[in-house]
């Protein structure tokens, strides 16, 4: 079985939610022409890292985003791994990811677990405490957000129940893009899973340059798609899901684990 995935690499306008919703809608409308099975968005695409303005711009209970993404998923009959958005829930702010299936049903809600101090995320955002596993078109998958990829034990835990695709949404600066690539290839190889990672482009509030470099990687670590740096659009890749069982059968890293020794 081949799964067609469209990576939406896009600029994010600082604190301008309406402009960003319009941009996502336009890019999804363009991407569906290629008839993808899954669409993937970057991190914090509703307002960027507008951390000091969260009281004005965070999406209350994610209501606007959920309604928006559910509507697009249903309208185009496509699964959407909705990157993440800044949300306000109770008295706290979160970096929240929503996943919708083709019927527009919410499959997962995940609050980023590892907060990135270098971009002051930990001062403003509350860390999540739950996993992000979901099933799309009968394929078990998991999702993480940006800095989460530096914690291989987190991805291992998420993928240890048979996950076949790891989705990553990010705002990862160009200056560390080589680390991004190496870590994503490592997460693919060690979990024998496809990795689909979408990074934003454009400039951040503290002078960061985000170049994109979104990637789709196969379970052997080969790069299937590298989106050109600084290019905006939907970029589509085919994942041959059939290749996975053979790879997992030949080198059974999950069943060869010695978890009794790992303390
Ligand atoms: N938004 C993020 O979590 C950025 C993580 C990052 O840049 C890193 O180097 O890690």
From TrEMBL:
Signal peptide annotation: none
InterPro entries reported in the protein's UniProt record: C-N_Hydrolase, C-N_Hydrolase_sf
Keyword tags: Coiled coil, Hydrolase
Domain CN hydrolase: residue ranges: 3-241
Coiled coil ranges: 7-34
Statement: the UniProt record of this protein carries the keyword Mitochondrion: no
Gene Ontology MF terms in the entry: hydrolase activity
Database matches in Pfam families: CN_hydrolase
Family: Belongs to the carbon-nitrogen hydrolase superfamily. NIT1/NIT2 family.
Listed name of the protein: Amidohydrolase
Organism, scientific name: Liquorilactobacillus aquaticus DSM 21051
């Amino acid at each position: 079985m081949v799964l067609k995935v469209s990576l939406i690499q896009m600029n994010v306008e600082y604190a301008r939610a309406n402009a960003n919703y319009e941009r996502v809608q336009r890019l999804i409308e363009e991407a569906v022409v290629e008839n993808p099975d899954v669409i993937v968005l970057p991190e914090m695409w509703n307002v960027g890292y507008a951390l000091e303005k969260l009281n004005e711009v965070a999406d209350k209970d994610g209501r606007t985003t959920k309604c928006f993404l559910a509507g697009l998923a249903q309208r185009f009959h496509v699964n959407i791994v909705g990157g993440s958005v800044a949300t306000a829930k109770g008295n706290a702010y979160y970096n929240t990811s929503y996943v919708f299936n083709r019927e527009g049903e919410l499959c997962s809600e995940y609050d980023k677990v590892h907060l990135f101090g270098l971009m002051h995320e930990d001062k403003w955002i509350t860390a999540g405490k739950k996993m992000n596993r979901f099933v799309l078109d009968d394929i078990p998958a998991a999702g993480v957000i940006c800095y989460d990829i530096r914690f291989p034990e987190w991805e291992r835990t998420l993928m240890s129940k048979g996950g076949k695709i790891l989705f990553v949404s990010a705002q990862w600066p160009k200056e560390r893009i080589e680390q991004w690539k190496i870590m994503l290839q490592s997460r693919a190889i060690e979990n024998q899973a496809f990795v689909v990672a979408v990074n934003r482009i454009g400039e951040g509030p503290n002078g960061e340059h985000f170049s994109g470099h979104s990637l789709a990687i196969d379970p052997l670590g080969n790069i299937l798609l590298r989106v050109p740096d600084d290019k905006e659009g939907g970029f589509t890749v085919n994942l041959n899901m059939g290749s996975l069982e053979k790879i997992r059968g030949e080198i059974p890293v999950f069943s060869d684990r010695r978890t009794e020794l790992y303390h």
